[in-house]
Design a protein that fits this description.
The protein is of the alpha/beta class and 209 residues long. It contains 7 helices and 6 strands. InterPro entries: WbqC (IPR014985).
């Protein structure tokens, strides 16, 4: 059965658990943009604990809800510099940061106009780093209840997500704040490298499979 997901910004680890368990993935591109989701945010592990990073977007002046595919990035903010500086501060001493740093910078060297294109590029880079292969396609219409697909679009919800029982792995600041689960896939990549794929495969049970 094909998997249906929202393309999100350096998605949380649980979403990559889903990727690791399915060959065929369909990305939703006909939905309306919603606030407080991982569409334009991610969480990393900073020196003070869980740290939010956000991609600023251009909001609709008319008040009419925008489709996610039409949402543009607000380039008036220096969000790329903030993001890169935060990653360096958080992960420079992690085992694999320098190994993947150049791959990561590819995402920020390109001037994306639309949020969706940024998210798809980020996923492409993460898949290459994790040596993960999926057959990617896209929705053509919005279906609230797609019966023929495994609908896990709720994994994009940052406000009401459940607590997942992930096994711990070594994190840069875990001696200060303990293990923090389900951060951005970047946290797993920088700390575990390509072993991250095995970690994802070991957690398929979290999705009820």
């Amino acid at each position: 059965m094909a998997l249906l997901l929202h393309p999100t910004f350096f998605a949380p680890i649980i979403q990559y658990v889903a990727f690791a368990g399915h060959t065929d993935v369909i990305f939703e591109r006909q939905d309306n943009f919603q606030k407080q989701t991982y569409r334009n945010r991610c969480y990393i592990y900073g020196a003070n604990g869980r740290q939010l990073l956000t991609v600023p977007i251009v909001h609709s002046e008319s008040g009419i809800r925008q489709k996610t595919k039409d949402v543009k990035i607000d380039t008036s903010f220096a969000w790329k510099k903030i993001f890169i500086k935060s990653l360096e501060s958080s992960y420079r001493s992690s085992p694999y940061f320098e190994y993947y740093e150049d791959d990561l910078l590819k995402v920020f060297e390109k001037d994306h106009i639309f949020l969706l294109d940024l998210n798809l590029h980020a996923h492409e880079v993460m898949s290459e780093c994790l040596e993960m292969e999926n057959n990617i396609s896209y929705t053509k219409t919005y279906e609230p209840m797609p019966g023929s697909l495994l609908d896990l679009r709720q994994l994009a919800d940052a406000k009401h997500e459940p607590v997942y029982e992930f096994n711990s792995y070594t994190q840069v600041f875990d001696k200060k704040h303990g293990f923090i689960a389900n951060l951005s896939i970047l946290d797993l990549l920088f700390n575990e490298g390509t072993s991250g794929l095995q970690y994802l495969e070991e957690h398929q049970g979290l999705l009820g499979k």
